[in-house]
Design goal:
Elements: E1 3-8, H1 19-28, E2 31-38, H2 41-52, E3 58-62, H3 76-85, E4 90-99, H4 107-124, E5 128-133, H5 136-146, E6 157-159, H6 166-174, E7 177-181, H7 191-200, E8 205-207, H8 229-240, H9 244-259
Parallel strand pairs: 1-2, 2-3, 3-4, 4-5, 5-6, 6-7, 7-8
Helix pairs in contact: 4-5, 6-7, 8-9
């Protein structure tokens, strides 16, 4: 069985002592591809290096998390464009988005940065990795303005670690965004979240670990890593009532369509 971890932060210092072993454990668990997320300009070079060192297994994204939206200025888009052009390993812009739960950046500053980044990504024909916490109304408004309907045969991007309700899931799918499923889909009290993913189905869901964060139920409170994708996939296979290998195959096809990584 083959699985893709479409969202990990393996450049985090928590992996400095055993990063190569983490990749080895992922491969042994059937995780054949990993997308490294760089959500601050200071992380871009490290993410490219991680992907470049593992050309058969890793790719990366370059973005600006809403935690750092105040860094966005007139020079940011040219800087991002240059970084993307210099790194064929970079398959998306992200993560970008809105966070009204924890980010200290004013909401209007977050919105301006996110809309500009999303519009640039669409004009450059680059997928986006979207972060959203307690901001679905504004998020959906911006996505509707920038994107509209889903493009044929692919996605505009992914709503990373989707934690919305089934109605919000429908809205994201209608606009052309896949849903990212992480450890919380395995948590015992998250029946509403599982219902949202049941609605989305395996063809519009991609698997994520967000390592080292958001470990699944069996490992809560500990460092997460890409090998944990198996537990997430197994829970979703139950939700969709399909065999585990089918869940892996169909979510991997969705990931390949998202990141245009054949």
């Amino acid at each position: 069985m083959n699985f893709i971890d479409t969202h990990a932060h393996l450049g985090d210092a928590q992996f400095d002592a055993d990063r190569d072993s983490v990749f080895e454990r992922a491969s042994a668990a059937g995780v054949t591809r990993i997308v490294e997320i760089a959500d601050h300009p200071d992380e871009w070079g490290r993410a490219v290096a991680i992907a470049r060192a593992r050309p058969g297994m890793a790719r990366c994204t370059l973005g600006l998390h809403p935690y750092y939206a105040d860094l966005f200025d007139d020079a940011f888009l040219p800087r991002l464009r240059a970084a993307l052009d210099a790194a064929p390993e970079a398959v998306a812009i992200g993560e970008i988005g809105l966070d009204y739960a924890r980010a200290e950046i004013p909401h209007d500053v977050q919105r301006r940065a996110f809309e500009a980044l999303a519009a640039a990504a669409k004009s450059w024909d680059v997928p986006v990795v979207v972060h959203c916490r307690d901001a679905f109304d504004d998020l959906l408004s911006i996505l509707s303005t920038v994107y509209g309907q889903r493009p044929a045969g692919r996605f505009w991007g992914v709503i990373h670690c989707f934690t919305g309700n089934p109605e919000q899931a429908r809205d994201c799918l209608r606009l052309g965004f896949a849903l990212g499923a992480d450890g919380p889909v395995t948590y015992k009290k998250n029946d509403a979240l599982r219902e949202a993913f049941r609605l989305a189905g395996p063809d519009a869901t991609v698997l994520e670990t967000d390592s080292p964060y958001l470990p699944p139920q069996s490992n809560r409170g500990k460092r997460n890593e890409p090998a944990a994708i198996l537990e997430i996939a197994a829970k979703l296979a139950e939700v969709w009532d399909v065999p585990l290998d089918e869940a892996g195959r169909r979510t991997s096809a969705a990931a390949a369509a998202l990141y245009r990584w054949p």
